[in-house]
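Why predict the complex rather than its parts? Because the way molecules touch one another can change local conformation, and only a joint prediction can capture that. The input here totals 1069 residues.
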Amino acid sequence: MSVTGTSDVVLDRVSKSYATVPVLDQCTFDVPAGSFTALVGPSGCGKSTIINLIAGYDWPDAGRLTVSGRPVSGPGWDRLVVFQETALFPWMTTIDNVIFGLQNRGFVRRDAEGQARELLAKFGLAGFERKYPSQLSGGMQRRAELARAMINSPEVMLFDEAFRGLDTMTRGLMQEYLLGVFEGSSITTVFVTTEIEEAIYLADRVVVLSGRPAIMKEIVTVDLPRPRKLEMLSSPQFGAIHERILASLIAEAEKDFSENVVLTEMLSASRGL
Amino acid sequence: MNANRYRRGIDIGLSFLSIGLLLGVWQALVYLHVYRFAYIPSLPEVVDAGRDYVFSSDFVSDAVASTLRVLAAWGAAAIIAIPLGLAIGWNKTFSDLSLPTLELLRPIPPIAWIPAGILFFPNVEGSVVFICFVGAFFPILLNTINGVKQIEQTHFRAARCLGAGQREVFRDVVVRGAMPSIIVGLALGMGIAWMALVAAEMIAGQYGLGYMIWRAYSLAQYPVIIVGMVAIGLIGAGMSACIRLFGRKLTPWQSQ
Amino acid sequence: MQPRGLEGKLRRSVRWWNTPAGSVVLQISSVVIFLIVWELFGKVPRAIPIPTPDQSVRAAVSLDPLSFLYDCVLSFYRVGLGFLIAAIIGIPLGAIIGYSRLARGLLFPAVEVLRPVPPIAWIPLALLFFPGIEGMILFLTFYGAFFPIVYNTIAGISAIPTMYIRAARSLGASSWTLFWRIMVPAMLPSIFTGLHIAIGIAWLMVVAGEMVATTGGVGALTWEAYQTTHYPLIFVGMAAIGVLGFFSSQLIRFIARLVIRWDNA
Amino acid sequence: MNASGVTIRHVTKKYVTRRSGEVLALDDCSIVIRPNEFFVLVGPSGCGKTTLLNIVAGFDALTFGDVSVGNDLIAAPGVISDPGPDRMVVFQHGGLFPWMTVLENVCYGPVVQKQMTRAVARDHARGMLARVGLREIEERYPGEMSSGMRRRVEIIRALIGHPKVLLMDEPFRALDALNKSVVQEFLLRLFDTHACTIFFITHDLREALFLGDRVGVMTTRPGRVKTIVDVTLARPRSTRMLDSRDFLGLKAQLTEEVHEEALKAFAAGEREAAR
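Output of the joint prediction:
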């Protein structure tokens, strides 16, 4: 796995609506090259839309979205996505999944398989090459998906709530795993999540988004040292950052929560009990 | 949005074109005498025959007879299959006692019951209704069983935690939880009963729409066959639509 | 320790009929009870007594095995041929309708208009159109199997998760690769669901066709048994139809399991 | 109020699976939950937390040991008592009836137990929903609400019958951070105002410490009680306490204990998958 990426991602007043519903409104932020940036926001606020735009599955209605200074013009293996639920092709074995990208680029099967075996071994999946995804545990599926992306040496990695659906324990171990892979690499990473703890634990910077339509609310720099350790989750610094992000989200919810007025009422009612 | 309206316009246009093409190809094949299409009545003939036939008392009595037969059979199937399915889905012991026999009978298509049906019943009416009943019975039964099986265990547990006894669990969880699936079964059952009806009337009937198309064939009134087919299709579709509509009223929590 | 105050609420956790062995006993007794009830029905005095299980078995034994086998094979062949043609036409048609918006707009309404007419109602027209009986029966089995196959293929193609298409495009798949390595396998489970329903309807159609035409096959056997007053033979015919239908749907299930190897976890 | 403690003594649970033969799910678990206590149990997935809760609820039988709620014996070898309104459960995947509106759901318990007539129960439920700001959604079906909202309604439905103990099985697992924090505060306020005993299962250590009076840690399978930690934070709790030194110290301690078990369970899981 070679490290090539020094790409940055820049969103400049990007807007997007579906039918008549605005999802992104003049959203502006940048992801510096080689950084690990997390996006948090209330569910359904348009975080996934941002991932889809960067990946090239969709186009902004207005504004400019560039990766390494070039506007995004469609999907490509320089920007790969790890999806919410596992997106491994269920009808291909683990190794066929991993070499899929290389095969599309004209690699000979034998060379591709050699590379894939090496990478799978590194990801703790040696011996599982011929298994179908449904025969792997949730954590293994995510690692196989990660391997399928990493074998293409992408410049930008996009995670769309990648660890949702895993139980908390596996999730914690996957986070550690991800840190092991990404700390020290120069891959630019955008990580969408609804878990504040996860965002702080993994990222250099946390972008807080407002409810729909999403606009960038605040960027919180995570100044915890690297490599990240589990103990840091209990440090005062961590607590402070957590509190700041949560406060920011709740303030947002109180201001306008797209889903219901009731939630706001709820908050005040529960405080007044 | 404009784009949406534009798109819908195109879709409607294409639908007309599609059905137009179907009718057009039919006419072309008939007029050009391709293979044996010369034997098939053309659209104008069908329309003429339809005009004469639809307002005749024969048609009305045929349609009414068929509809009543299907409704009786379907109703009886529902009255028997729904409680049976609820019991089988809910109670393991009851399921062990009755499901193996039902599974044994299930692969036999309703049409294959025609001779046995005639044998069981002294009159035609009884055997035709019986055959439709067999057709409607299994889809309703199986969907009811599945409906109960698909109810999450959590809901049974929640009801018992809240103090519901067996009777209340049955009334408030089993019946209501299986309702969406029962309605699917009722619609499917109606479709198959209608199909079985046509076959039974054709083979054993003395009147009814199925018998009508068969008689039209024997009497060489070929355009009437197509009129009958259209009538069968329309009445069947209408009844399915009624069931779906009624079903939506019964399950207001199912979002569309 | 003695339970206090709750005797009424406490219960033993397992009774014998809830154990696996007890369940098997109940299941066997279910079939036995059915046979006894059937036997008793045969004893009820009426104009034409209903044939009993043992009479039916005796009728089955007295059948000429060769001609019976011939009937079975003939019906099976008719179902198989009609079903195969329906699959060969229906799957690509469903795929095109599911894939292209234009094809959907152009073809789907025509299919929709034809659908509410039960395939059995086509029998007179088919008799009129085809010069021989075989053509008529073939058309019926084909036509009955056709709609479930088309509908499930359309459903299969529209239910492919966007995620798979997107992942493949990101990984540089060409349209050819996208179609053959992503879309085809993704819609296979749904296609097999359609084939499974279709084979059931094809059997129904073949029985109807054979009863009308009475030229060989298990449907004709059953109908002729009635006409020639060999009543016990009716149940033999029905059983044959049931077994053959069950066997063909198991066959489809078996092929599905061979093809869809990834779904067995 | 009628809140009672829960006594779990030497509870052991074995079951037989076709794949791996006899499995020991719980091994000699003893926990004493005091009346009006908020007890939280944490541990890796598959460690038997849910099994223990199911035994207390009356959904599952035990192999050895006994459980009582207050003075009533609930479970012993060979006998289980039917689930009932004295031990109300809030379920992991949501237990609201999708075919009933919010109001019907909340009324269901009192009406089915014939404690109240339908009309009285409706008034009562309306009052309760209004007090917690859920009045506006009473005619909605669960399918028409967010998951956070469903959780709140389910908690209200559970509390309206004044259960002796409230059993909560990872109830907030599927919620996002914002909704989770709102519902946690909601539960805390209800716990402060309604006397009840709560037995709460979670994976989330932050949640465990924020809510609980005591937190028990379970080992990976077979489940045993490893340690029980006293949460020394005062009530009423507020999010501000999450920054306190006490809280962080407890969290560090728990993190270490649970992580050790998680690693064991994870290794066991991979072994299982490899078979």
